From TrEMBL:
One Gene Ontology biological process: signal transduction
Protein name, UniProt field: SH2 domain-containing protein
Gene3D superfamilies, alphabetized: EF-hand, SH2 domain, STAT transcription factor, DNA-binding domain
PANTHER family: SIGNAL TRANSDUCER AND ACTIVATOR OF TRANSCRIPTION
Length: 588
């Protein structure tokens, strides 16, 4: 067997290894993490260097014994000193391991959970941080592996000196560290809509991607040993997930109602993404006819079977479980709203399958609503559409204040999450069955009002929103205040606070009079709002879209000519001075 840090055979020249497997001539006491990303975490650098210093003391003593140049007296002195060094080193190992697991990876996973309601671009920014974490895990793993190599040598050549116990303790730390280095690096969405509007479709309407990834592990030959290994994926209920929390060896079987596709993937090693099994284009298939209500209250998880082998006789066998999600047979907005709150505010990382809290802070709620709104805007209209990775348009502070104010925060700026589900904020006129004129007004809770506006924006006005032509969340009084500050005729496109699913166009004409016009979903289906603003006589003479977009240029109408070139400017005539004047001879 070739001596290597992964073989368990000790040799001094193999005690220092870089992450690519080449022997390093620089001692760890002189090293800090080599990448800028890892070095940016000063806490890790301090802890890792402290561990490396203790390892260096252990290494120097073992090296001296291995050379055979130590006298019997010196050898006995070293063999008595090494256990004390190992005690300190194991303490440092536990401290660094706890930081990497309990702080670095845990905080990343908590953020990952919250961002599952966000756009793919936002999620990708957090995913990219795994490269730095992978580097940190690799550096720590190298110290563990090299320590195990030294302990294997000591236990073999100096039995009954207590090194077997140290070897067992370091192996235990290593096993824990390596197993929890395997993570669900891409989570399923909070809601999988089984079939959209058509309930007879067998497969879910939109695909999603998940991924299992191993952080670090190269020093233990995980990348070499696990390349092309298959990872199985099962769809399980949250009841099964709860059993797995108390018994990791609980048998997992195929779900009775749904199938997950694909059911397996292969581990592959990539330079920039580490060792990962990618489950791309995942969909849910139903086995038979199901009622909407029969599954709407259930929660499901993805369960990945892990079975990989590391060096030093360490087998990593177990299961990794995703965040819980719902499978809907047809859309149910209330279920989506509850899952949104769960992903945004429940502590599912540290307390799996825990309940959603009852309150949230102003800032957390504002951020969550912003991310959810942005995510709805990028929902594809067809199952064949792909979602581009584009940075979403952020909410302004005024918009955040407006949407949070409607949730009625208390004096401590805390929002009762029940308000999101139950607080009526708008009204909808519902026709009586069989009538085209008679009906009654129905109160609409916050989540329906909020989701409906995002859905309408996605379907009918997305380009205008992305171009900054829609102000969005704004009440009537605020709109009039903003328009009164505009010196020229201007219109402002906003969402109705009172009438459910309506878009309002607030207009200040050239005489300074402000009017408000509304459009519902039927109106927007029949004609794009951009065309409506250019062609409807109600907006004749309007020059700008708030705050200062020239309406013809912004909406793709006729190009605005350079009409101010030969107009007197120094005496500052009123804006309407030239309204009834034009050139006597037209240019052809």
């Amino acid at each position: 067997m070739d001596p290597s840090p992964s073989s368990g055979v000790y040799s001094p020249e193999f005690m220092d290894y870089e992450s690519d497997g080449r022997a390093s001539t620089v001692s760890f006491s002189a090293q800090s993490p080599a990448t800028l990303a890892a070095q940016s975490d000063t806490t890790f650098v301090i802890k890792h260097n402290a561990t490396a210093e203790l390892y260096q003391q252990f290494k120097d003593d073992v090296d001296y014994i291995f050379t055979g140049n130590a006298s019997v007296k010196d050898q006995n002195t070293l063999l008595s000193r090494i256990p004390m060094t190992l005690e300190a080193l194991i303490t440092a190992f536990n401290d660094e391991k706890q930081y990497l697991m309990g702080e670095v990876l845990c905080n990343w996973a908590i953020k990952q959970q919250k961002l599952t309601v966000a756009t793919l671009w936002t999620q990708q920014q957090n995913y990219n941080l795994l490269s730095a974490i992978d580097t940190q895990f690799e550096y720590f793993g190298e110290l563990l592996e090299q320590t195990l190599s030294g302990l294997n040598y000591l236990a073999e050549h100096f039995p009954n000196r207590g090194f077997e116990e140290f070897l067992t303790r370091v192996k235990h730390i290593t096993h824990y560290f390596l197993f929890y280095s395997i993570i669900v690096s891409k989570q399923p969405p909070s809601v999988v809509v089984k079939c959209g509007e058509a309930e007879n479709h067998r497969r879910s309407r939109f695909w999603f991607n998940t991924e299992i990834r191993i952080l670090g592990g190269r020093a233990f030959n995980l990348h070499k040993n696990s390349e092309n290994l298959q990872v199985q994926c099962f769809l399980i209920t949250d009841d099964t997930a709860k059993r797995l929390l108390s018994n990791a060896y609980h048998e997992v079987y195929e779900n009775e109602e749904f199938l997950i596709e694909p059911p397996a993937s292969i581990l592959h090693s990539e330079i920039h993404h580490g060792l990962a099994a990618k489950f791309d284009d995942m969909r849910v298939s139903k086995k038979g006819q199901l009622r909407r209500d029969s599954v709407a209250t259930k929660r499901y998880c993805l369960c990945y079977n892990i079975r990989v082998t590391a060096s030093h006789g360490i087998d990593l066998i177990g299961k990794k479980v995703s965040l819980p999600f719902a499978i809907l047979v047809g859309p149910k907005t209330d279920v989506e709203a509850k899952l949104f709150l769960e992903r945004s505010f429940a502590d599912l990382v540290r307390k799996p399958l825990s309940d959603t809290p009852t309150i949230a802070s102003y800032r957390d709620m504002a951020d969550a609503l912003e991310m959810k709104f942005q995510s709805i805007l990028e929902t594809p209209q067809k199952s064949t559409d792909t979602i581009p990775l584009i940075q979403p348009k952020p909410f302004s502070n005024n918009i955040k204040h407006h949407i949070i104010h409607r949730l009625k925060p208390d004096n401590n700026a805390q929002i009762a999450l029940e308000n999101f589900m139950k607080l009526p904020v708008a009204e909808e006129f519902c026709l009586k069955r069989g009538s085209t004129t008679e009906g009654e007004w129905k109160l609409v809770p916050y989540y329906e009002w909020f989701f409906k506006l995002a859905e309408m924006l996605n379907k009918y006005m997305l380009q205008m929103w992305n171009d900054g032509l829609i102000y969005g969340f704004c009440g009537k009084d605020e709109a009039e205040h903003l328009l009164n500050d505009c010196p020229r005729s201007t219109l402002l496109v906003r969402f109705s606070d009172i009438e459910f699913g309506k878009i309002k166009v607030s207009v200040k004409d050239r005489t300074g009079v402000i009017r408000h016009h509304w459009y519902d979903q039927t109106d927007l289906q029949s004609r794009p709002l951009s065309r409506e603003l250019l062609s409807n006589n109600k907006y004749n003479g309007v020059e700008f879209i708030y705050p200062n977009f020239q309406i013809d240029m912004a909406l793709g109408g006729r190009e605005a000519g350079n009409t101010n070139v030969r107009k007197p400017r120094h005496l500052q005539p009123t804006p309407v001075y030239f309204d009834n004047q034009e050139a006597a001879v037209a240019n052809f």
